[in-house]
Amino acid sequence: MDTDLLAPQLDKDLPRFLAELSTNNTKDWFDAHRARYQRCYVEPALALITGLAEPLGRLAPPLTAVPKVNGSLRRINRDVRFSKDKRPYSAMLHLIFFTGDHANRGPGVHVVVGPDHFGVGAGHWAFEPAQLEAYRAAMTTKAGAKELTAAIGKAEAIGCVADEPQLARLPRGYTAEEPVATMLRRKGVVVRTHDQPIPDELFGPDAVPFLMTRIKALMPLVAWLDRTVYG
Fold first, then answer.
1. At the N or C end, where does the chain have fewer CB atoms within 10 A?
2. Any residues with CB less than 8 A from the CB of 9 and at least 6 apart, and which?
3. Strand ranges (DSSP E) for the chain?
């Protein structure tokens, strides 16, 4: 038996499945291809998450990997209750690895694979009030702004960029010059890329080390947020 095939990796049929789902985004089509979904989407993704769990747990801070649907593998079903876009499924594989006890309560790392693109990202989109206060306090110090800038720079080295600030103006009571002014207009910090070609490594025995290299480049941001905003 080829031992390379035993290493955690994604299925080569995944991009094709996602492309077909994108153009046939209906429950009838999905139900007819449910076995394929399990074979090329769910099972390889859960195996990959399991393979990543140990090295992720050795990072500082450790990242949690939960090998189940709606754990580190996000559900393919879209929540369309409050969306004008009523397509029932997301034509994308989405993995999340997180600090703390819940994916939505602290910074984490995301991996996405679409029909023709790949991306990674890190951070937390929306701080709770206490975390937002801690973040803004850090931005008023030279050390805090310098450390965050350096962490974002590490992410930029692998093609990630910071999302645009959510606020058009500085929050009330704050004055600052650039680049701190831009930082203060954020209500969360996220760096990401989603437009890279799908790397061949994801479909071979080097999938885990390939992803770990990229995740490690994002960890300075995760560590800064965990220490400064959530500590």
1. N
2. 44, 47, 48, 202, 203, 204, 205, 207
3. 93-98, 108-113, 118-124, 161-162, 189-196
Cis peptide before 67 (omega within 30 of 0): no
Distance CA 151, CA 229 (A): 14
Task: Please report the pLDDT score of residue 1 as a whole number.
Answer: 43
Q: In what order do the strands lie in the sheet with 93-98?
A: 93-98, 108-113, 118-124, 189-196, 161-162
Predicted local distance difference test score (pLDDT) of residue 102: 82
Q: How far apart are CA 164 and CA 102, in angstroms?
A: 25
Q: Residues 121-172: pLDDT tens digits?
A: 999 999 999 999 999 999 999 999 999 999 999 999 999 999 999 999 999 9
pLDDT single digits (tens) 77-89: 999 888 888 999 9
Collapsed DSSP state (helix, strand, coil) of residue 195: strand
Q: What percent of the chain has pLDDT over 90?
A: 90
Domain residue limits, the chain:
3-229
For domain 3-229, the CATH class is: alpha beta
